[in-house]
Amino acid sequence: MKPTRLALHLIAAYALLALTNFAHADSTSKRILFLGDSLTAGYGIDQREAYPALIGAKLKASGLDYDVSPAGLSGETSAGGLRRVGWVMQKPADILVLALGANDGLRGIKLSDTKKNLQGIIDFAKKKNPDIHIVIAGMQMPPNLGEAYTSEFREMYPSLAHENEATLIPFLLEGVAGDPELNIADGIHPNPAGHEIVAETVWKALEPLLK
């Protein structure tokens, strides 16, 4: 049977992460894991221009000894993230940047299920490393999904951060969403200039945890 495009993306993503883990298997560096969807994967651009890679460059420039493990997968939901967290965390992380949930919202998935899945990912990460720092990247939904749903979705992230004593990024796409000059042609995913702004937003949340 000919592999589907999604299967090929999965194979490529897992292979990339496996190579990353192998390359740093004997490293004493601390590890930052970015678990997310197409925004984290750098959909539509070179992965070297995506925000996790830009964070890696900032770490190197700052002389900070951290390995960056990007685990973004286009189309990923919170349920998908929960299914693969055991695989991507075979090697424990010191910081987890959790950037999932947007595809749940766009699909109208019940938010109680989304929150439960995200909590499951956090619980697994803490079990692997009780001292791990969790960074939760919040997202927002377009108003056409209804005021009640968009409001509940927006508040889900601060609630998770509060309940888990995690660092909150209120909106991952702050200053980028809706700006055609900062997004690729689909109007949803950041272009390289947009990812530079996303990287700055993430860096502000990460920097205090690195010292």
TrEMBL record:
Pfam families: Lipase_GDSL_2. Residues 1-25 form the signal peptide. Gene3D superfamilies: SGNH hydrolase. PANTHER family: THIOESTERASE 1/PROTEASE 1/LYSOPHOSPHOLIPASE L1, THIOESTERASE 1_PROTEASE 1_LYSOPHOSPHOLIPASE L1. This is Arylesterase. Residues 34-197 form the SGNH hydrolase-type esterase domain. SUPFAM superfamilies: SGNH hydrolase. InterPro entries: Ester_Hydrolysis_Enzymes, Lipase_GDSL_AS, SGNH_hydro, SGNH_hydro_sf. GO terms for biological process: lipid metabolic process. GO terms for molecular function: phosphatidylcholine lysophospholipase activity. Keywords: Signal.
